[in-house]
Amino acid sequence: MNFSTSAVAKTTLLAATLLAASSAFAAPPPPPVWTDVGPASGFMIDGNVITYSPSPALEVKYYDGNIANQSAANIMAVINTQFGLTGLNALTAVVSQCDNPTSACTNGSGALASTPYSNSFTSNGSYDYLAVHFGQGELLFHWSAPLAAGTTFSIGGLPHGLSNYRAYESPTAPVPEPGTYAMLLGGLGLLGMISRRRSAAKK
């Protein structure tokens, strides 16, 4: 068989065009999603074993993408949405935060650990929700009871370097004062007395 140079060039060009066209129509990568992980220390992210303490948390959620707006208010809204916090249960303010792993902290402090991608965070206030942002990922922790002020949270094994922390505490339900109960009982007694008088007047 004798192929001319132009036939080989045409065949090569056709194959390259078909290859380029098929890659142009390749499926886009899936969008980032939230996943429940843990909740105990030792769960996997991107092939890395993530350890943290204090453990276990009640719930841990992982987002395999980048949340561009890392303001405390935006992350608070993300936590409220992801944990279904609404009304009186919704978070209302950040307790403490570090905009970098070891600096730009408000009401807390951060520190690097000796192993790569390991850090610690200490809040001067108690908290039960913590957001940890690292390159192309977000971890949200929720404990059943607030961690006491001064408790050091440590994390290791992250697939990328840690960027920041945001700590929040659930609002406490208002406790009625004793005078409120007295007014409630007095009001119920008054209603009962009025009801008795009306029924006696009808007889």
TrEMBL record:
<dbReference type="InterPro" id="IPR013424">
    <property type="entry name" value="Ice-binding_C"/>
</dbReference>
<keyword id="KW-0732">Signal</keyword>
<feature type="domain" description="Ice-binding protein C-terminal">
    <location>
        <begin position="174"/>
        <end position="198"/>
    </location>
</feature>
<dbReference type="Pfam" id="PF07589">
    <property type="entry name" value="PEP-CTERM"/>
</dbReference>
<feature type="signal peptide">
    <location>
        <begin position="1"/>
        <end position="26"/>
    </location>
</feature>
<protein>
    <submittedName>
        <fullName>PEP-CTERM protein-sorting domain-containing protein/MYXO-CTERM domain-containing protein</fullName>
    </submittedName>
</protein>
